[in-house]
Amino acid sequence: MKAYNLTWLEERDIRQQADRWRAQQALTDEQVEQIRQAYPVRFKQTGTALEIGSFVFTLLAALALYGLVSITLDISSKGSGLVSLIMAGGTFAVAVFSIRSNQFYRNGIDNALWLVSALSAVWGLVLVFFERNDVFPPFWEVCLIALPILLAYIIYTGDTILTYFALAAFYGTIFDGLLDISWGKSALPFVLMGASAGLFGLVTWLRRSTANSVYYSDVLTLVQWVSLLIGMAAGNYYIVRELNAVLLPTRHSSSPDIALPGLFWITTFAIPAVYGVVGFRQRNRMLLIVAALGVAGAIATVYHYVGTWPLSITLAVHGGILIGLAILLIRYLTTPKNGFTDAIDEEPPLELLKHVGLLTTLQGTATAQNQPTGPRFGGGDFSGGGAGDQY
């Protein structure tokens, strides 16, 4: 069971694909119009500014209601937890009712209600069941409690805002939990790299195997981006060294060197290189973009510790080099080279075969367009013997 109508999302995806194929001249304007009539937009459509305003207003209204109830009743932490649980259930019911009655889909109001409901459920459970003698549980324990609740909401809603919080809870559990262990700080970079690699592999497998990829497409893409970036950052020498200095009990004028510096210098360049090689072989734009960011971060890391040029000159030189490389690549890839091109990367028209209904619509359109233009009969009436009245 899902919060939004999966069929409506698939129809929206068909419309978007049809627009892209028209841009590729794979479909005519008449065929696209026929598709639009066969698959109309069923969700309520609003502008981006209105969605942001609705989200902020709904969020503030919910928080004001919670604060008003808490101040009016003057309740303890347990009572505040019960109010949070009641609010979680109430906002959940309001969200479901709003979606079914107004055909909302990420219109701001529903996003805010899902967020308030999920966070209220987490907060209420922590206060009611895990707070002992007014002692709040550690941060990693709160994240561990929040993670299954957020995952349940994401499975039901496919909401990307909740996905950010779920990712924060996942990495927060690992980060803060390891800091409570004697050897945890030393193992933290390696555990983060391993967890990110595992998360990316899991999401990649889910993207290929799930039957509802349209429903979770944005969520899975977001998790892939974040896991790649954090996995790369966890192996960057600058981040590891400076974060280690922040976590030291005493402050130093400059960050002290870390254990295994050679290994982290290798990972600073090796991880972006692996991303780039795999992205090049698989023609994966996400991996190539993250690899380019990693190379830029590696160069900045080298400059930070061994560079002698002023920062302004370094930025100007690097910016000029990157602009020149971009211009050369654009000109070089005007015609496709080994599967790479400067043209917009869209799905091939063969993707039509995945939508039988869309293929039928196109076939009907083509048949209508190919009718002979000779004399046409019609307009007469005939009745009797059970026959129809039009011929």
TrEMBL record:
Q: Which organism is it from?
A: Fibrella forsythiae
Name by which UniProt lists this protein? DUF2157 domain-containing protein
Zinc among keywords: no
Q: Where is this region: Disordered?
A: 367-391
**Keywords annotated in UniProt:** Membrane, Transmembrane, Transmembrane helix
Gly residues compositional bias, start-end: 376-391
| Positions of transmembrane segments | 52-73, 79-99, 111-130, 136-156, 161-181, 187-207, 219-239, 259-280, 287-306, 312-330
